[in-house]
Automatic annotation (TrEMBL):
Residues 6-98 form the ABM domain. This is ABM domain-containing protein. It comes from Aspergillus ruber (strain CBS 135680).
């Protein structure tokens, strides 16, 4: 259903020696999402403790239209353009919704 929230996890793989630069770009796009995308409900990144060569991005969108606006928007497009040369391989996306009877917890 188009009105349901969409949850995404992206796994980004920096090239050797490019993690800091890619992290800085991630911080830039995160700030722009915060300022300009009100229907992006959650958007943050962290490094994988087991594999420092991975950056994990957690995203939640109000609906499919919000996700579409993010993907087609100038902030994400600029990130993809700059980040593509810093990634060892294309990022992986995992998409889904809440499990049945799982309300989730958020204390932000």
């Amino acid at each position: 259903m188009a009105s349901e929230a969409i949850n995404l996890v992206a796994v980004i793989y920096p090239k050797p020696g490019k993690a800091a630069e890619l992290s800085a770009l991630m911080a830039e796009v995160t700030q722009k999402v915060q300022a300009h995308e009100p229907d992006t409900l959650l958007y943050y990144a962290f490094t994988n403790e087991q594999n420092k060569d991975e950056i994990i991005v957690v995203e939640r969108y109000r609906n499919a239209a919000a996700l579409d606006a993010h993907v087609k928007g100038p902030h994400f497009q600029e990130f993809v353009k700059k980040a593509s040369g810093l990634m060892a391989k294309p990022f992986e996306l995992k998409r889904g919704g809440f499990l049945p009877a799982s309300a989730g917890v958020a204390r932000l």
